[in-house]
Design goal:
This protein has 1125 residues and is α/β, with parallel strands linked by helices. Among the domains are: 3-59, no CATH class; 74-249, 2-Layer Sandwich (Chloramphenicol Acetyltransferase); 260-427 and 441-504, Chloramphenicol Acetyltransferase; 943-1024, 2-Layer Sandwich (GMP Synthetase, Chain A, domain 3), CATH 3.30.300.30; 1038-1114, Non-ribosomal Peptide Synthetase Peptidyl Carrier Protein, Chain A (Orthogonal Bundle), CATH 1.10.1200. 35% of the residues lie in helices and 21% in strands. The strands form 12 sheets. The chain has a 5-stranded mixed beta sheet with strand order 7-8-9-4-14. A 5-stranded mixed beta sheet has the order 27-28-29-30-31, covered by helices on one side. Strands 32, 33, 35, 36 and 37 form a 5-stranded antiparallel beta sheet that branches. Strand 7, helix 6 and strand 8 (186-194) form a beta-alpha-beta unit. InterPro entries: AB_hydrolase_fold, ACP-like_sf, AMP-bd_C_sf, AMP-binding_CS, AMP-dep_synth/lig_dom, ANL_N_sf, CAT-like_dom_sf, Condensation_dom.
Length: 1125
């Protein structure tokens, strides 16, 4: 039971409680009255009782006074402001309706019922209060009098209360919004079923009531109805205070210094909290929060509940604390988060004078749990207890004040500070007790989800009832059922073994999922004798010698001509001493010569190392030396080559070579698993790139797999394919494999590749049915495809696709009757290890594994996690790399051998460093990186490699590179210099060093000098904080702004109490909150005569965006609508 209910029980039994001079709890009562159960409750609730008594003592002289002018306009309370703000943001809805329904039989009087409800309305001002904006601020006004909205429905006479028609009448009322500006906040519906049978439904808006208010209503209504029915009148005394009196006292009391220590506690405790939990969702989070909800209910039998209670007692904790500790474990196991924030409601009625007042007193208490502070479950339970007790002792601060003070980054899609709530209650049925009437409560299945997840535990005589209320727009019911089952599993595990290490607590893994449709390879594709790529090319030439193999501008060559050139070039390389197994650096831009050269290397059984000709000298030299290349082939010369003493010969490519008669090429053979085909270098976290060595067998297997993928899009393999990626990017492998399989390869020039319109014209000209692109390019390409009305199936790969691009892709597909694939796979798994058909899925997925591969999700201990849980993506199968060149230790860390001690799968697999989740439909979703690796234009970039290069310079003390997660995708490096005064001299030197050492895609867009790195409370570097500081110090001067922007800048500076703001600064990140937002809207209306909605401000929270919105509204041709908030 909660504090208020416990106090009521103590009063009934004549037990008195108080505080000693030392602040200890003192209990006075007979042994019989106390009893064992009540003693247990007193012990469990002792900290909260002490706090309640302390505040009560302060409140006895609290100064709450009855306001003399009841007809004045007053500001809203903090809690009321929150609900009013949400109402304005979301528009009118029923999410904060509090309906209660009862089935009545007997001598029920409609007239008496209405009279009693009229008195309820007369007695409690909050029920006849209206809410509106006044002078830019949320305000409330109490109507002097009002008639109770009381509707009697006689259309259902003769029907059962559970019939569809009766339920439809009740639901219509349940989902009917209250208009806060004008409606009475209570309404009553009576449905007559017979002469002595009715259904009574009471519906109240949460802005005027809370759970305790409903208890007050039932208690008062029982007395009022029975007295009026008996005597025709009631003698129930009026409340001494009203909610309006409390709300004004609250505002006045929170303005003094007594709140400062509590606020300081919360600011320290909640500094650096995550903005949102990381539990994987089954549906994309909508831009604006939705409240459609579902509910899953489970039961913990009494015997198990007693064990949980016993463990709680041993640790001096309550059952609620045990539940919170286990909930944090559950969230951790599904999200990977160790730092979590939860909310729990508290009654907020600590003063005796507030106990019988109708109004919104409930407060949200924030509880932050960090598993990094604990080793065992016992540690976690003690830690959770400490967190709860600290929170209880500082709960005087309204949650709304916390939101304003902490100013978290606002998002219209989820609640600020916490999105998961937990509450515990005793089983109390607040039933009506009306003389001559038998009353039963009607339980409703209709639910509204105010949070992503809400856990409600009810303590009953036969155990614990656990209800999971979930946001149905985010989660599938089956997933929440898994949450519920795993929560029960955790409770059993931790109560049986409280000393268990947290790292040893694993959830049961249920891999039963719906199988996703996937095109499989040919039946013989598992045979070890797969044709090598070069053998496939020769077989294709034998079948289609005159078919076009390559189109390079005006040049078109057939397969027979291509093979002839490959043979000729292979002879030249043999003359130069190239043998099977050797590595060859290949430095070309995309061209026919590049294709011929690579195929010639493979023809000899050698391994090619792709190197972009525009790479800096240092990078090029490193790759050549690290790979131990026997020679380097290029269509260009490099003046510096001879100056480097450790480089192999540079062979300048010549297409005119003819094969000598005395040199015989090796015979063609099947692909070999122990023979390398290529080495692709990716960015390395240790400061140098790492060479990923791929075997001929893995390449051959991928050649079959890409064919299967394409057939999933079109009935047969495409006749043409466009080269669309960098040679040094493993997506280029697709072009070689398809060329070898009989698909003509088109090589566009550079100008075509960077122009969406020219590229689409090329696709249309050659009737290309499938095109491979990257997520960063896809939006512009899709726009151009639609503009030119060209239908193409797309393969998107190389990076995280993102929800907006996914949605745009689906719309294009539906319009033009095509489909698309989202392909996934690190370089270490040979191009692609999984793929997913886009159509039919609401949110991005990387799909299921390609044939022969397996994707599974593991935790830090390499345990496989349940469906729906976040973890690291691991991959097994024929595509796994042979090695990291010269990095054996790193290879051993990332590639887990089948016989490794920590391998629980019994087969070798690669730990990708990518985070993912297996969804209930069997498909895997990508959830970002676990380290500092990012993707820039499709290339893998280890930010540590950039940092290590910059740190190698003597002028630099510390570096932190960061990729901005917005549309700009800017790569920023914050550089702490030994002497920041020399920044103007040193930074150009650093930039030159970067240009000479790193490829262009790794060059930071900005080098920002800093005095010192800004860090979070946990010691981590905070790039977002440093970026904000940089933006504030480099804002545009007013003279460079337009008129609307200048005016807005002045308003912002005044409201936010700052000297300067930038046009792209976020209003909420600069300290704006809901109240200031309303003031800003009022100022905009006054200054510009334009009505801006709350949701418009949340979507466009910068000066630049707001100015554009205002200018658009002020255009003469635009129909303007004044929006009153």
């Amino acid at each position: 039971m909660n504090i208020s209910e416990l106090i009521d029980v103590l009063k009934e039994k004549g037990i008195k409680i108080g505080l000693s001079e030392q602040g200890q709890l003192v209990v006075r009562g007979t042994k019989e009255a106390l009893g064992d159960d009540l003693k247990r409750q007193l012990k469990e609730q002792k900290p909260m009782l002490i706090e309640w008594l302390s505040i009560r003592a302060q409140g006895e002289d609290s100064g709450i006074r009855v306001l003399e002018d009841r007809q004045a306009i007053y500001p809203m309370s903090y809690s009321q402001k929150r609900l009013w703000f949400i109402d304005k943001l979301q528009g009118q809805n029923a999410v904060f309706n509090l309906p209660s329904a009862f089935h009545l039989t007997g001598q029920f009087s409609i007239d008496v019922a209405k009279a009693a409800f009229q008195q309820i309305l007369d007695r409690h001002e909050s029920l006849r209060t209206i809410y509106f904006e006044h002078d830019g601020e949320p305000a409330q006004y109490v109507l002097p009098q009002a008639d109770i909205p009381f509707e009697v429905n006689t259309d259902c006479i003769g029907l059962d209360w559970s019939s569809e028609q009766v339920q439809a009448v009740l639901k219509e009322d349940v989902y009917q919004p209250f208009l806060l500006e004008q409606d009475i906040k209570i309404r009553v519906t009576v449905v007559q079923l017979g002469e002595q049978e009715w259904v009574l439904q009471i519906n109240i808006h949460h802005i005027s009531a809370d759970g305790m208010s409903m208890k007050v209503l039932v208690e008062e209504y029982n007395k009022l109805y029975n007295q009026i029915a008996k005597m025709g009148m009631s003698d129930l005394p009026l409340p001494k205070l009203q909610y309006l009196d409390f709300s004004q006292w609250q505002r006045e009391s929170l303005n003094n210094d007594s709140l400062k220590p509590h606020l300081d506690y919360w600011k320290n405790t909640l500094a650096g909290i995550p903005k949102c939990h990381s539990i994987p969702l089954q549906h994309p989070r909508p831009e604006f929060q939705s409240y459609e909800a579902g509910k899953v209910t489970t039961h913990i039998e009494a015997s198990k509940a007693q064990i949980i209670e016993g463990i709680s007692k041993e640790h001096g904790a309550t059952i609620f604390m045990s539940m919170l500790a286990n909930l944090s474990l559950l969230v951790n196991r599904y999200s990977g988060d160790t730092d979590m924030v939860f909310g729990t409601p508290t009654a907020g009625r600590f003063l005796p004078a507030l106990e019988n007042i109708f109004g919104l007193f409930v407060n949200n208490l924030v509880l932050r749990i960090n598993l990094d502070e604990c080793q065992t479950y016992s540690d976690l339970l003690r830690y959770t207890k400490q967190r709860c007790l600290e929170g209880y002792s500082h709960q005087q601060v309204p949650f709304e004040v916390l939101v304003e003070e902490l100013a978290p980054q606002r998002n219209t899609g989820y609640n600020p500070i916490f999105q998961i709530s937990i509450a515990m209650q005793d089983l109390v049925d607040e039933a009506l007790e009306l003389d001559g009437v038998e009353v039963s409560t009607i339980k409703s299945d209709d639910s509204m989800g105010r949070y992503d997840l809400s856990l409600l535990i009810t303590d009953s005589t036969d155990g614990l009832v656990v209800e999971w209320l979930y946001n149905a727009t985010l989660f599938e019911r089956a997933m929440v059922e898994s949450f519920a089952e795993d929560f029960l599993h955790l409770l059993v595990t931790t109560s049986q073994s409280p000393q268990i290490k947290l790292s040893e607590i694993a959830l049961p893994v249920n891999q039963t999922t719906l199988s996703a449709p996937q095109t499989k390879l040919e039946a013989n594709s598992d045979d070890e004798n797969i044709d090598s790529l070069i053998l496939s090319l020769y077989r294709t030439m034998d079948k289609f010698p005159d078919q076009t193999a390559l189109i390079d501008g005006d040049l078109a060559i057939t397969y027979s001509q291509l093979v002839e050139q490959v043979e000729s070039q292979a002879h030249l390389l043999m003359e130069k001493g190239l043998q099977s197994g050797d590595k060859v650096g290949v430095v070309f831009s995309p061209s026919t010569d590049l294709i011929v050269c690579v195929l010639a290397v493979l023809r000899l059984g050698a391994c090619y190392v792709p190197i972009e000709p525009h790479y800096p000298q240092e990078r090029m030299v490193f790759q050549v030396v690290d790979s131990a290349a026997k020679m380097v082939i290029s269509d260009a010369t490099f003046s510096w080559w001879e100056e480097e003493t450790n480089l192999p010969p540079l062979v300048v490519y010549s297409a005119e070579h003819t094969k000598p008669a005395d040199i015989k090429l090796p015979s063609l053979s099947a692909a070999k698993a122990d023979q390398a085909a290529y080495v692709i270098y990716t960015s390395g976290s240790t400061g140098t790139p790492k060479g990923v060595e791929i075997s001929q067998y893995s390449l051959a297997h991928f050649m079959l797999e890409i064919q299967a993928q394409l057939v999933a899009l079109t009935p047969e393999l495409p006749k043409s394919w466009v080269w669309s990626h960098s040679f040094a990017f493993d997506a280029s492998i697709k072009s070689f494999t398809l060329l070898a399989s009989g698909t003509s390869l088109i090589l566009p020039d550079v100008d075509t590749m960077v122009s969406p319109s020219a590229l689409v014209e090329l696709l249309n000209k050659y009737e290309v049915p499938i095109f491979n692109t990257m997520p960063s390019v896809a939006p512009a390409l899709l726009e151009e495809l639609e503009r030119q009305s060209v239908a193409v199936n797309l393969i998107v790969s190389g990076d995280d696709i993102g929800q907006s691009t996914w949605t745009q892709l689906k719309k294009y597909n539906e319009k033009f009757g095509v489909n698309a694939i989202n392909a996934y796979g690190p370089t270490e798994t040979t191009v692609n290890a999984s793929y997913c058909l886009v159509n039919g899925l609401s949110m991005p997925a990387i799909g299921s594994a390609t044939h022969g591969h397996q994707l599974f999700i593991v935790d830090r201990e390499l345990n496989e996690v349940p469906v729906g849980a976040r973890g690291e993506i691991a991959i097994s199968g024929p595509g796994l790399a042979m090695s990291y060149l010269n990095k054996a230790q790193l290879f051993e860390e990332r590639f887990i051998a089948s016989d490794a001690k920590n391998n629980k799968k019994g087969q070798a697999f690669y730990l990708t460093g990518d985070m993912g989740v297996k969804q209930p439909n069997g498909l895997v979703s990508f959830l970002g990186r676990k380290d500092r690796q990012v993707k820039v234009r499709g290339f893998r970039v280890e930010l540590d490699e950039i940092d290590n290069l910059i740190k190698s310079m003597p002028e630099v003390q510390e570096v932190h590179s960061w990729l901005r997660e917005d549309a700009s995708e800017q790569l920023i490096s914050f550089v702490c210099l030994a002497d920041i005064e020399n920044a103007s001299t040193v930074l150009p030197i650093i930039q030159s060093h970067i240009r000479a050492s790193l490829p262009s895609y790794m060059h930071p867009n900005k080098l920002i000098p800093v005095d010192a790195m800004l860090r979070t409370t946990s010691g981590k570097v905070s790039p977002s904080a440093m970026w904000k500081l940089y933006r504030e110090s480099s804002v545009l001067q007013p003279e460079s702004l337009g008129g609307t922007e200048k005016a807005l800048m002045e308003i912002w500076c005044e409201l936010l109490d700052v000297n300067a703001v930038g046009v792209t600064d976020n209003f909420f990140e600069l300290g704006g909150h809901s109240l200031l937002a309303m003031t800003l809207i009022a100022e905009i209306r006054s200054k510009f005569g334009v009505g801006i909605q709350i949701k418009s401000l949340l979507v466009s929270p910068t000066i630049a965006a707001l100015a554009a919105l205002i200018d658009k509204e002020q255009q003469p041709t635009t129909k303007k609508t004044e929006v009153l908030l």
